[in-house]
Structure formats: C-alpha cells, structure tokens
Queue: 4 jobs
Job 1
Amino acid sequence: METTLVENLPEVTALGVIIKAIIILAVISALAGFGTYIERKVLAFMQRRLGPMHVGPFGLLQIAADGIKLFTKEDIVPQNANKLIFKIAPAITAATAFIALSSVPVFPDFTIPEMVFGVTIPLVGGVFVPSIASDINIGILFVLGMMAAGLYGPLLAGMSQANKWGIIGSARTAVQFLSYEVVTGLSILAPIMIVGSLSFVDFNNAQAGGIGSWLIWQQPVAFVLFLIAGFAETNRTPFDLLEHEAEVVSGYATEYSGMRWGMFFIGEYANMITVAIIASIVFLGGYDSSYELGWLMIILKISFFFFLMLWVRAAWPHVRPDQLMWLCWKVLMPIAVINIVVTGIVIMV
C-alpha cells in the first residue's frame, strides 16, 4: 500500500523541531560554502579554466580558506553610514533565507536512535525529527513571503552606506522587487488552483502517481515563469542587477566586508536551494514516499536546478533594468494572467 508524507508518523515534539532547525542551519550553511566551490568549478569548466586547484586536493580546501578569511577579515563600517541599519541589513537577508526553509521539506523524516554501539544517547535519543520544521497549511505563501522580505536586506544595505553605488544597487532592488514578486505569485497560482492547497505536503501527495503525475505536464507555462522569476528572486544572472560588477561595482554590498558580506553570500545560496526545492516539489513531483529511493530523486532534482543556475550564469549576458521591467510587465505578467484564466476554464469544464 502506498504511504503519503504524513501517514503513520510519530508525534512531532518541540525538541524534534529544534533539532531540525539546527540541522537546517548547519547543513544549508555548509552547502552554501560548498556551493561556491561547485560554482567556481562549473564556471571554470565552461570557460576552459581549472578553477581552484592549489588549496587541498582539487582545491577542495579552498572553501575552508575562504571561510577563515571571512571570519578574520576586518569589519569596516563607513563613517557616514547609518550604522544601525548598516549592521542589521545582512542579518535580514540571512535570517529570512533560513526562516523560509523552515516550511520547506528539507531532508527526510528520521528518528534518532536511542543507542549507538551499545551507548545510550542522552536527551535526544528516540526523538522523531520531521522533514518540515514548521508544517503549516499555507507553506507556499509563507515561503514566498519570507523570500520577498529578504529583499529588504539589500534595499536597506544600499540606502544606509552613504555610497552612490550602494544607492544605485538599492534602487535596482526596489525595481526588481516590484517586478518579479508579482510574476512569482501569479506563476504559482495556477498549480495552486489545480491542487487546491497551499501546503507542500499536499503538492507532494498530489503527484504521487509517478512521473506522469508531475504538474509540469499540466503547467509547463507556469513552470517556465516560476523558473525565470526564481533567477530574479535569488539575484542570479541574467538578473543580478543589484550587484553587477561592470556597472555598479558591487551595488548594495560595495562597503561590506568580513562576515557581514558573508551573510549576504550565505543568504543568496540558501535562497537558491529554496527555489530549487520549491520547483522540485511543486512541478517535478517532489519525493514519492512509495518508492525507496524517493529522497534520492528529489536530491537529484534539486541538484539539477542548482546546476542550471550556474549554467545560466556562464552562458547568458546581463540585462539592463529597463529590459527586466519590460520583460516582466509586458511579457511575463500577461502570459501568467492568461495561464491562470485558461487553467480556471479547464477546471470548471
């Protein structure tokens, strides 16, 4: 008999949720660091370079070297900056990225064993750790809202540093925020109409029949729209207007150094992982608990979307702010509205 994501599970306790939150913080932060290594290697391969090679085997210890550099680098605050907002802005970006992950299925359910090699594990032994830290019935809305709130980090960072490049980056943040948040919401609305729920669990269970049940076959237009909006959400090429080096130095991050700059960095990669997870669950079937390798499949799907973001950076040029707004308001938004209307007619018929 097929089992769904929520059937026959032990009771979720506060301790299990705390453990899940710690796992998300630790693992996603580590993956963000490892993602930098993967990105540099992928870009090097596509541009016929070697990438990191000298620090450790195949340059693997470059991640540790970069981490040590970030933690030990001097934290400089500009003299004329609004110091309070300048210091808080990076925390907003990092915090919202991890809070968004609290309502996304991250890693499988598991129970911590009570004994390991004959030794009893105190306090946490036998605790059930859920796949979702906070399983709320409006999970998609919550995650998209938190990712949108994360854009206030670059917005405030650019406005607070008394630097013309920061101000320009902040203005571009507002442009991007107003444009692509609308497309993101409209693109996901049609799949929500089909499933009839905002819960990631319901989306996963609605596609439990195998590859033929994936929503991408019913909503290819919504999938493409969400993918394009996802690049803008995560500030990735070709929509990295906020910190395009050739135009605005580093934009909102121009005056940042040390770990405060690293918090922007971690937030961006955490959002990339979040977008990859959402796309995998909403459009590509998520993980089917009726299959033994269901979790392996979703990891492969997430890895594909992460690689796609790196591939696009290597292959596509940047766009101008006016091109971004034209694409959003005159192309993507009308397509999204038409897709919603057509979906509604099909459902009613």
Job 2
Amino acid sequence: MATNDPGVVGADAPMSTGAAATASATDRGRHIRGLVGQYALLIALSMLVLGPLLLTMIQALSQPFTWAKSKPLHPVAVDWKDRTWFTGGAFSVVVRTLVVLALFAWFQRLVAGVSWRQWRSLLKPAHLVSIVGTTVVFTVMLSFTFGSLHSVDGVSQWWIIASMLAVAACLLPGMFAARPLGPVGTLLGAAAMALVAVGAGVIFVGAEAWTATWDSARLGPAMNQSLKMAVLITVLQVVTSITSAYAFVFLDFPFKRVIFALFMITLLLPLEVTLVGNVALIRQLEWINTTQGLVLPFAATALGTFLVRQGFRGIPPEINDACRLDGYGHLAFLTKFAVPLTRPVIAAFTVISALGAWNQYLWPRSIIDNDDYATLQIQLRTIVGENVADANLSIAAALVAALPVLVLLVAFQRQIIRGLTAGAVK
C-alpha cells in the first residue's frame, strides 16, 4: 500500500544512501583488487620472460667455466669495480645521472598518464620530489652497494635490499598524487620499479666485465662508426622514400606504373647477388674504408618507397585538390600535409631502416679492411673469434651492441604500432 507519511520516507532515505555507499565501496574494492591482480600477473609473466635474459647476464658477468660449475642463479665469482657512482670522470657521472633522472621522470609520466608534451605536470611538488629525491637516493645508495660488492664483506645483499626499499619509498609521493590504485597496488608498482632500477644499476654499472669488454674490444670507435653509418643511411632512405613515393602517387608522368614495377623488382635481388659488382665499383671509386662507401649504396630502398606510397595513397584526393586551389605547390603540400598525415607509417619505416643499417655485417665486412673503420658488427665477430675461452666478454659485447636497438624500440614503440596498424580499421 502506498503511503504519504513523511516519517516513512525519511526513514527509508538513510537506508538507501547507506546501501549505495556500501555498494560503491564494494565495487571500488573489487576494482582495486582486480588492478592489483593484473599488475601482479604482469610482473610474474615479465619475470618469466626475462628469466633467460637474467641467466645471460649472469654468464656475461662471470667466467664461463665458473658459471657452468655453479647452479643457475647461484652467486658466482663476479669481478666488481672499485668505484662509487661518482667515479669515472665528470662527463661519465653526468651522463649516468641524467639517464637515471630521465628514467624516473619517464616512470612518473607513465604513472600520471600524461605525454611528454605535458611535461609541466611533472613539475608539481609530489612528482618533482619523487624524481629528484629518487635520483639522489639511487646514486648514494648504489655507491655503498658497489663498495660492499667490491670488498666482498658478505652484506652486499642487504645493501641491495636497502637500496630497493629507499628507491621505492621515494617513488611513493608521486605515485599517490598521480593515480592512486590503493595501498597495495601503489606499493607493488613502486617495488617493481625499484627492483628494475637497482638491479640494472648494479649489473650495468658495477660489474667489471663491461669495462673490460669496452676497452679490449674497442667498442667505442666501432659503435661510433656504426652509429654514424646507421644515422646517415636512415636519413637518406627516409628522404628518398618520401620523395619517390610522392612522385608515384601525386605526379603524372609516362610509364609510371612500369617504372614502379621495375622499382619493386629490386626487392627480389638480395645483397649477395649484387655484392661482387658493387664491391668492384667501390674499389674503382676508391671508396674502400670510407663512410661514403658504407652509406651511399643504401641511400634508397624500394621497401621504403612502397610503404610510404601506401600511406600517401590513403590521403583523400579532396585534400590535394583543396591545397591546389589554395595555391600550395608540391613542396608545401608534401611538408605540411602529406608527411604529417602519414607520420606513423614514416616513423615505422624509420625504425625498420635504422635496425637494418645498425645490424649490417656482410657489406661492411666486404669493403672494410682497416680496423680503424670497423663497424660494431665486425668487432663483435672479432671478439667471438678471439675470446673463445672468455665467452662472458663476447656476451657482454653483444648486450652492449643490443642496447641502442632496445632504446630505439622503446622510444618508437607507439609509432611502430600505429604504422603497422594503419589502415586496419576503416
């Protein structure tokens, strides 16, 4: 029976409000538990995937026969440097510290859910304290950890644990201020970041194997040569691919389809087929042991033209017509409309081109006979052949060579995904 008694209505209202608050708290609790479970599962899966890499790190830091006799993940005879974080010259210290500062700034940006264009949001007191404080604590605590590892005083594991706890504690203010996931979720994320940061700092900065490999294998000049070659090849391939793709899409000239077909046929010719002729030409031009000999034969690629052409074909014809009516020429339309609209495709090809140039071995090996011009891949092959008994040095050199590739993939991961999925959804 319906009733208009105000007392009854007043009695029912608090019960409804309390039930709604209870339901909201229950839903929030489920949401937090779900997030914590997801993070825990992701961390467990990442550790499972990174397990073989951890074993490789252990082998890289240890003598191979010592490592083989011990149990996997068992402490082995690792030579540690007699150093602190602030040892090694001003330039080295500044570079290491800036890398760590950028790492913790990236983590705070990730937690806050903002892009690098919104970097001013990281200047809030909570984020700023976390970034700067974590960097200072990280450098100071690792200095004590390095000393303990070098002296073999038996308490190194406690210094490592203390470093992780201190770093995690400094990360918490920015994490709580950015996007609170509940106490458990926030603590779990801070602990995971501290584990990765301290572990990477101890392995990559404190171990002697990296310095021994860098000095004995002359990785510095070789990496510089490979970096110069990769940058020049990538820039030239991107420029020639964009201009040629623009010509094939937006310009009309005789036999355009035939020329494009002949252009694509070059993809069927591997480097080994044209190697002898190209080497003979390089010798006639006296480009042996030169940068132009390494770079110019790869200044253009049909693959890049094909990928960028497919991106340009996705531009609506109405945009081109409107630009022509507004008085835009080919160069203006290319730089202001065509390239920005196909940026994901161009970025993906840039990564592909850079990886291919960085990993080249056959061509540099064919035209380089002077160690002063040797690229990184040539030096890696030399290290493997000369250090059969010291396999840890070879593994350490290979990991050093893979580091720029890892940085490139992490930096351009969004562009790679967008480029590969461009046109997948209509």
Job 3
Amino acid sequence: MNMIDSHHHLWDLKAVEYPWLNAKGVKRFFGDPTPIQRNYLLDEFRLDAQKNGFGSSVHIQVGAKDGLAEAKWVQSISDANPDWPMVQVVFCDLTSPDLETVLDSYLKLPSVRGVRQIIGRAPEEDNKTGTNDLLNSEALLRGLRSVGERGLSFDLQLIPGLMEATSKILKDAPKTKVALCHAGSPHDRTTKGLEIYAEQLGYMSSLSNVTCKLSGLGMFDHGWTTDTIKTIIDICLKQFGENRCMFGSNFPVDSLYSNYDRLISSYKDIIPRECHSSVFEKVAQRFYF
C-alpha cells in the first residue's frame, strides 16, 4: 500500500511571505503558532511520513500573501523531488472578477489539482474576519462551476453551522469535486455539540460529489486522545463510507498537539483494518492524482 497524506503544508519563510507566520505573539483558534513559525520543508515532513508508510502527498495552500508565488514555489519542490510525488491545492478567490485568468495561470503548473478558499475557520475568528460572507456572494457558485469545468477540485473548509447553507450552493455545482477539510471542523466537542455536528454533516454527506478529509482534529482538541477523536471519525465513516473518506495529517499545524507517529497510530487503531486501503490510499489517489 502506497499511503497518501492528503493534507499537509510546507513553507520557506525566505522564499514566500506568509503574514500569519510572521505575526508574533498572535494566538489563533488552533493555538499558539510560535513553535511552527519556522521553516517546515519537505525533508522534515517526508522523514516522518515515509517511516509511517507514506509515499506521496497533497500540499494545501497555507495563507501566503501571494497565492501564485506559493504555488510556483511548491511546484519547484515537486520538480526537485520526483521520487516523492506531491500535488497541490492552491489559493483562489472564487469571487474574483478575473477568476478565469487566475485559474488559467495555475493550470500552467502541472502539480495543481485543486483550489481552496476558506469559508469558515472557527466562530470567533470568522466573526472578526467576515469570512462567512462568501456564502452571500452570487459569484461563489459561478466560481465553483468554473473550477469544476477545468477539471479542478475544491477544498472546502467551514464549520458545522455553515453546512446547510453551503450544501445548497454545492448542489448547483454537481460536477465540481469537493474535499471537506478537517471533517468539517467540529469545534464543539461536547456530547450535544457532536450530536449537532453529526446532524449538520448530513447536508454534506448527502452530496455525492463531496469527499470527507479526516484531518486537523487536534485544532479544537489540543489534548486529544484516540478516544476523543474516535467519535468524529466514526461519524464520518458512517455517513460517507470508506470510499469517500481520506486521511490527512494537517502537519505541521497538528504537530502542535502530537507527533506524526502518534497521529498515524491512533488513526490506524480507530479506522477498521478493512478500510485502511481506501482511507489511507485509494480515495486520495482517485481524488487528487
């Protein structure tokens, strides 16, 4: 089995500008970023991933000031490491008036497989940034359709409370493949919160073009254990099935809460062995490669 990590990041602070990585002393919804405000390059990521059975990966955009500059840098890393197949999901404002031109620029890079524009991170941050307002833009649907028409996928990051409204938009872009990042970011881990999450997740799982990415579960549970994340993974597997779920480490962000070895060990313990081939390889292979 050639396992695929479907969600990770890399950054070189001298090669590309990342405003959030340069902002010192600013806590984020996922915690204090200080330990990861340093270069995180392929060699470091690959060392952890490879010893755990991974042989390829998907790089996800990570808030660079210039999305195209980031994509070109990632392409250069991919080109320089042909023995580690790595494709990428780039940033794109789907409501931009020059969207078609931007997408065509990205398509010149052979590693590009999809785009991401975050709709929701966490309630407290979304309230300040107005990120959720994307759902009120008529241009969003047009953008989603344009992405699909070019054979690209869309990485969707949002919170449970936005799933119903988002599903109505996605229904009108059925030809666009969608990856639900971080299992839909279930931020309320109380029993009631997870019940609401499971209910809202139904709006996503009912759409055949949506695949669930089992990633980033530590961002709202910094002291997570195998037991505390099991409920979420079980919900996702029940609703989406093994053929629409894929693993992603969200490293180095999730390195704030555990090391790579422990993360993989926990996921392998939770996910039924008969589902490993699908969740750790086949779904990501089919979706991104």
Job 4
Amino acid sequence: MNAEFLAVLDHLTREKGIDREVIIEAVEAALVSAARKALGSDVADVTVKIDRTTGAIKIFSDGQEVREAGFGRIAAQTAKQVILHKIREAERNVVYNEFSPREGTLITGTMHRFERGAIIVDLGKTEAILPKREQSPKESFRPGDRIRAYCLEVNKTAKGPQVILSRSHPSLVKELFKLEVPEIAQRIVEIKSISREAGDRSKISVTSKDEKVDCVGACVGMRGTRVKDIVRELHGEKIDIIRWSSNPEEYLTTALAPAKVAEIHLSPDKKRAEVMVEDDQLSLAIGKRGQNVRLASRLTGLDIDIRSRSQLAALTKVSIADLEGVGPKLAEALKEAGYETIAAIAQASVERLTEVKGVGEKTAKKLLEGAKEMLSKLEAELSAQNEQEQQQEQQQPPGEQGPPASAEEGS
C-alpha cells in the first residue's frame, strides 16, 4: 500500500497540481479520526505519522505505537477517500481558476439541454447556465447549436464552480463590437454608453480619440459589414450607432434619431429634458410602444418629456381666466406681471405670486394649486392622445409609417 500511496501522490502532484504535503496532512488528519473511532472514546491522545520518503503509516496512542490488526485496511480506505476528495476539489479549483478571470468577457459553448427554462451550455471542462431571465426573448436554440454569450459571473458552490451566462445584457453588444471593430480593441474608438432592449433594438454611443478616425464609420464598417456581423450574431436585433457629445443638447438630439428635434430645454440640474418636435415627428421620436424615447433616456441618463409643437401650443394657450377665482381684474394684473399662461403660473412660487398686485398669500396658494391641477389634466389628455397616435401608427401597413431610420442606424 505504501508504494502505491507514494505513486498516487506523485501522479496528483504532476497531473492535478495538488500539493503533495497538503494530501499527506489531510490523510493524517483523517486517520486520526478513524483511529479514535476504532480505539474507543477512552483514548486521550491519538496521532498519525506518514513517512514522507517510504510512505509508512504509524499510529500512536498516548505515545505508544498501535499495531492492532485491521489498521492497514482502515488506513487504505481512509487514504483513498481523502485522495478522491482532494482530486475533486482540485479539479473544481482548476475550472474556477480558469473561468473566473473570464467574467465580463465573451464565452463560446454548445447548447446541451434545457433545464427548468434555463439553457445548459457545454464549455468543455464544465457546464454553464444561461438562465431564462438572461435569454433574449426572440432567440431560440437547439441542442448542438453554438452559443456565444456574455459571462455574467462565476461562483463557487458546493457542487463546483457555477458559470452564469447572458444573451440579454447590454455588455454583450459592447463585447461583440470589441471583437468586430479593431479601433475599439485598440482603444482609438471608445464606447461611452449602451442602452438595449434585447432581441429588438440597441442604441450605442461612441467617440474617437483620434480626429482622423470616424467613430461611427469604424463601427459600421465598409458597406456595413462590421455591424451586420453583430446584427447577425444577435439574430436580427437592430442597432443604432450614434456619435457621443459632451454637449447634452447635441447628444440628446442624436440619441432621439431617426426623429428630428426642434427644441430642447434642460432642467437646471441637467437631469431632465423637455423636447419639442414637429407634429409629424412625434410618433417617430416616441417610437413603437415608447421604445425610442426609452432607449434614448437610458443612453443619455436624462428623463425625457417629448411634446409636439401643437401640444405645447395647447398647453401654453390655455387662458388664465379659466382658473377658478380669477376675474378680469386679477387676470389683467397677472398678465401685467408676466403670467400669461397656466404653465407660467404653475411654475411660479407662492412668494413670487404674492408680488402681483391684489394677490395675497391665500390667493397665491389657490392660484398655484389650481394651475398645477389644470396643467396635470391637460398633460394627461395629451399623453392619452400620444398613445392613441402610436396605436394608429402601429396599425398602418409597412411603408406608411413615416420616414426611414437614420443612416447611422447601421442595420
């Protein structure tokens, strides 16, 4: 048994990369436990020594060597169990150490089977999980299909390393662009932001560190070859490539493409934007089921409120005389103070309104509340009108849905 034990130790050290001393110490500890059970609970001190050169195993109880029959068999079984456990542990560590550095990168495998809605992907040395929540809703795979996915995380579990993949994460698009566009891999072109609705559409903003390199052109490729390869990999998902700008208005204008923006008003904290478009651009700016404005909002980090020119006109032209308690004299006084619309009053403060001739604090509060309530109702009506127009737009036959997408779409 001694020669075989040493041979196994040498094999594990070479093939599995397991430290020889670690296995010997583990076997010694396991044999101590086995010896205690065999000798009974009355034994106070039990130690086991394995000779590192010959492999000889000696068991001591209270300082005396135990030569009881059956210990050879116990030692052999215990050593076998410990070694098998160490082999499994080492193999798991090898797999974990190989895949943990690949978090945040692309991994390619083969679709193996379905398991409770998740897809099990064969990676060769281990299997990965593509959970239902991380799958693109418009994709389907069959056993044997090649799957390229984004490595979301690698976790250590009792059953070994668990590799979790994603086909819906925005970073999948980013990594595909790195793969297809050398200028991105070389850090000449930088991806600033990505917003994505997996399986349907993505928006990606890019900028160039070299004035001679066109960032959008580099991503699209000659005759669109680069972006077409990515679209093919994403099973037809549309991709809008836009030029990033440090100017918020300019950046938002390109982010809302293919719609044409007429005016943009940013809030003082630069977190909210009111956008005005021409009437024929409204449905295009909002997009199907609000997708275009939603993706633009995520891309720019702005809360976006879009109105058409006629809608804004409707909001600003509501007469202040329609407010409860506002007679001709008060209406005239408000207009002279610069409050000509309901919106202007709603955006004022009680302090500012009390500066108007004939307006006290109580009247100012009543005016402010009434203006905000009326404005809220008007905006609700306009939102309902927007939804109705979108539904009509979606019901129109192809070819009657307005102008085509911008040239920078690349799809």
